[in-house]
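pipeline: protein-struct stage 2 | run 1193 | Response regulator transcription factor
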Amino acid sequence: MIRVLLADDEPLIRAGIAAILSSDPGITVVAQARDGSGAVALARRERPDVALLDIQMPGADGFTAVGAIRRACPSTAIAMLTTFGQDDYVARALDGGANGFLLKAAPPRELITGVRTVAEGGAFLSPKVTGRVVAGFRSRREFRAEAAEERLGALTPRERQVLALVGAGMSNAEVGRALHLAEDTVKTHVSAVLTRLGVRNRVQAALIAHDAGLTADG
């Protein structure tokens, strides 16, 4: 039996979702809270398999409750439940330790599937949310690639070669051997690369090389 804690500040919403989940013989709602603080207290007491949390609640919101429940009840899976599908909400929820993100307007079967999935140790995003996340990731990746390539425009051809090898994890000595340069010359090139890219260290430079798709073979 999957034991669920449900937190939402709207009584009718709580009642409706509880009824949907209880229609599955393998799920039982063991506690209900109307705010984040109450959800954390009930989680400590009930140790549910799944905590289903609304994001916007009075007092401690769902994001705050995620962290507190994660610390107090590490074995409890957490899914966020909201009417909103904004990308920043999804990112905050997942970064905070949530295992799933469900929309209140989702079909009943989807809510049940989401709860079952996170209870079994999986991750679940509402299909409507998944499409937005994937599109957003692609857009951000393309933006990073364009921005990185633009920054590489400040480098000379030799500096691009040096950066590509630095991005591959090579030391100055290894870069020197690969390009038939003295190590002191490589150090000068690396220093110039960092200055032109406006970064502090080799790791940051390597990330730019990665975003731009710059490889050792050009």
